[in-house]
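Changelog note: in this version the structure field was regenerated for every chain. One regenerated record is shown below for reference.
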Amino acid sequence: MVIETGSNTCPMYVKCVPKMEIFREMCPEVNFLMVYVREAHPGERVKSHESLTDKIIEVRKVQKLYNDNRTVLVDSIDGLFHKTYGSHPNMVYVINAEGIVLFRGDWNNISKLKKVLNSINDNKIYTEEHFEPTKPNPAVAIKALTHGGAIAVWILLKEFLGL
């Protein structure tokens, strides 16, 4: 199975959705899951979740908005999955049928994931897990952040500019 974390306001997740759909079609024997975690860049339009119901409502929007056809699991309101398995907003895990983690990335690196999926039957364990995140193109980042609202855009802009 391949598990990826994401949220409505995470540009890193949004940029990966089309490729993950291709991988899902390319590997029908693999279960592809998305775990909806906390909002990466909440703002006035998409706020930090105050209840599990809020998260469920938002994840339904995410699936439609980004055409994500994977099975989606929703993390608890206190973020138990996210805290237990890493706190990056766009992590990815590849786990074989025996439950062994073959690959863990603190960011979803599409080119590395493709290599792992191409050798998935070898059950090779990949030990490198940190990758510099590949930035989404500006249009994708703006799309994700504007769903959060102007505050989400401003906060991320401040981070990039070091303000």
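Spot check on this record: Residues 2-161 form a domain with the Glutaredoxin fold (CATH 3.40.30.10). The chain has one domain: 2-161.
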